[in-house]
Fold this protein.
Amino acid sequence: MKCSYACGTNEHVVARRQFLGGVAASAGAVVAGPIVGGLGALAQPASAMQLAKDQKRVVVVNMAGGLSQLESWDPKPGTDTGGPFRAIPTAVPGIHICELLPETAKQMQHLSLVRSINTKENDHGKGGYAMFTGRRQTPAADYPRIGAVAAKALSPQASSLPGHIVITPGGSGGRGSDSAYLGPKYSSISLGDGKPPKNTERPEAISEQSELARQAFRRKVNDRFALRRRTAMTDAYTANYEQALELMKRREIFDITKEPQQDHDRYGTHDFGRHCLLARRLLDSGITFVQVTHSNYDTHNENFNFHIEQLGEFDSPFAMLVADLADRGMLESTLIVVMSEFGRTPNINQNYGRDHWGTAWSVCLGGAKIQPGAVIGKTNDNGTAVADREVDHAHLFHTYMQAVGVDSSGSFDVDGREMPIADPAASPISELIA
């Protein structure tokens, strides 16, 4: 479904740099401390095929614009705020979700819900920042997004693959600026057409023999330079060249045409279906963090018609992704999160829409160490306020990290400074961690 954001804010427009340009820019990155965990030498295809059982991965589905909790995870049928849709039973007795998610309901035994979120934030940019960083946005500091944190904490240090992928319509291999003090190495690479990133294939005009000679000369010059003027910056520059070369050798993992036709048929030919299939392929190949974007949920107008179409597109591919991860034995090591920057108002406006609402809303998550089939917190009868176990973005961020085995109370060593992984003033939702 193609539509325009009703509020028209600039936060929805994300500029991307070219991928290899971003890689080269990493030469100026701060070299951080050691990385926790990891798969091993992913440059070796055999290692990539034999994923270690304790290798943790994260997939986030960003329901951009603000998914309505009342039309998804916390329906209130029969109330003055509930809207026209029914609540349906799921695979977990006692848990009901909106009838717009029938396939997801069948996978609820793998998933859990948090229905008591209050971020106190109704702005797209600030709400998204809070949910992806676990911190409030302030002029005083910038914090890395969850993808950058996961990539640093979980990715193999010598990996030839990027650890932070964002799949979004129109993504073409550019680098994001979302890793803050962790440095460009952990910033996102955007993909969107089901093909490998641009500029990752050797030009036809350069023969393989010439390329080998060029790289040998580059290494020789680098080695001579390092004997006299080696610094962290030059090491980062050299390492990024080598990583880019290894990535070129493994570019096929980004190509979903390699997946069986039956899988294309199951996931669907629309963008979101193809992107979920690509996410599965990337996770299966050892990518640490994959984010899939689905929009537009900023339904100030015609909220109910929009959600019929949007969730009609979301439901089956997402349920398929959950089922496939479970069938492949990957769910116990892969965290799944479905989030937005906020929810939608319980009150329905004059345009049959719902507006921005950060006061009482929900997310869905599962896999890794998340207790399956759980519901944390609740809202009151008509969804206007949290009635039990209020949490916010900081609690959620701690929970995500703990679910993949990262001590969220710890810190990263960044150029000799201890930088907390998550907000030290918050803690995880302990009853959600198995």
